[in-house]
TrEMBL record:
UniProt keyword Signal, yes or no: yes
Sorted UniProt keywords: Signal, Transport
SUPFAM superfamilies referenced in this protein's UniProt entry, alphabetically: Periplasmic binding protein-like II
Entry protein name: Sugar ABC transporter substrate-binding protein
A cellular-component GO term for this protein: ATP-binding cassette (ABC) transporter complex, substrate-binding subunit-containing
InterPro entries, per the entry: SBP (IPR006059)
Pfam families with a match to the protein in the record: SBP_bac_1
Gene Ontology annotations of biological process type: maltodextrin transmembrane transport; maltose transport
Any GO molecular function: maltose binding
Species: Acrocarpospora phusangensis
Coiled coil, from the record: none
Keyword field contains Signal: yes
Residues spanning the signal sequence: 1-23
Amino acid sequence: MSRHLLGAVVAMALAAAVTGCGSDEPAAAGPLEIWIRQAPDSDAAKTATKLAGAFTTASGVQTKVVALLDDFETKLQQQAAQRNLPDIVINDTAQLGNMRTQGWLREVDKAALKGGDQLADRAWQAAQGSDGKYYAAPFSAQSFALIVRKDWREKLGLQPPQSWDDLAAMAKAFTEDDPDGNGAADTYGFVAPAGTKRGYASWYASSMIYANGATFLTPNGAGKFAPAVADPKFVEAVKFMQDQFCVAKTVNPGAVSNDTTVTHEVFEKGQGGIYLVGPYVLARFEQSIGADKLEVLKVPKGPSGGPGTLGEGENVYLMAGSADEAGQQKFAEFAVSAEGQRIGMNKDAPGAIVRLPVNTTVDMGAERQAPGWKVFQEAYAEAVYSSAVPNWAPIRQTTADAINAVWADCSADVKTGMDALATKLTAELQAQKAS
């Protein structure tokens, strides 16, 4: 049996397990179980608990928050196999296709969602499946920008970068000119989560790719796509970063094996001065490094295109098989309301689970004073969401493997690597019936 056919059989079995119980009596509704992809006892997990508590106060519906970070999707698979999915999952927008393919999600009636008309059209786009239907309520949005060591830049007399040449020059200076003044060659320009776990290399590269006017896939008819990774603009963006790894050597050592957890710590330890990342770590870094030492700058337009960075965020997913569909609906409506969004934003404190509000009635400037948030908000207006294929997860992983390979091997030819990637993506799109 082929891998894709086997996957389809498993998906159908799981879907049947979570959506139908045969002659079994439906399970009695208990507390509404809410899973969120955050570390237990983290500031973000505490914010999620605060949100759930406010919902209970407003609705009378009891809740139980489960915060998990490691192997989140694997643990969901295990729950599905046991016919015991949580009622609500707050998870990445990019996971919509994966969860929908496995039959885990209830369809959301956009028109019937109270407050749905107050949500940004761009945010609703991230809740839409490849069939045009909606399978989640938008909850949080984010774009990407550069968090930069302002104290280093000013010490070296550099101006904010306006081009990729400027960006490379600043990275070189941060690497070679002792920006922290300790007399040791122990700093680098870029810190990067460039490993393959959960597709991080692709996730990190996305903003540079979009900033150069490139994309992973191009539309090729209704619901159909073709790979665009062999396009010269795409190759140019990946090659720019390969040069930083291999020629200029301005990226922190070990980056090709790192995920975001490690990369956050590398940045906090002062081992690098440029971090292309989302706004969710801004408050943390301002506390650990100092707000006066940091600044948020837009990603410069690439030599062949732009502007634009990756657009993503989190959705509230209403999971199939729940014994409390009314409670699911009420929670989704509270989460997207102005009150729910403000709680999730958590002002300027660490632990925001709403990075940029999706409810257009929320004034972010009234909630947050840190100027960096405004840069992320402006970047979101030009952000690019992943293509609405049935399942983005294997595409992100396949592209991460290929991009990581040419960053980790300095003898690798980027064009050759991206040509091979295009062939693999064609096969994946065919397997998803999206080619």
